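Researcher: I'm preparing a figure for a lab meeting and need a structural model of a single chain. I don't have an experimental structure, so a prediction will have to do for now. The sequence is pasted below. Please return the structure as tokens so I can convert it later.
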Amino acid sequence: HVSMAPSRQGSLQSQAWLIQRNANKDFDFSIHSLATGYAVDIIHHLDREGAKVGAHPWLPGAGNQTWSFWGTRSGNT
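Model: Understood. Here is the structure written out token by token.
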């Protein structure tokens, strides 16, 4: 798992997130708030570009709370 905090002034508990790989899935992750334990999900299960995200109680297996991270090795960043 990885912890992430997008604040330049230091880690705020309300802005600290835990990124955790889902069991037996190489590219499936869930993102949880360290302050509340809620998971980031897609609101209303909308499957389109520009859909809004929010944080709701964790529901294991909920497809709208599963995230994939992909990268490239074509650059040096």
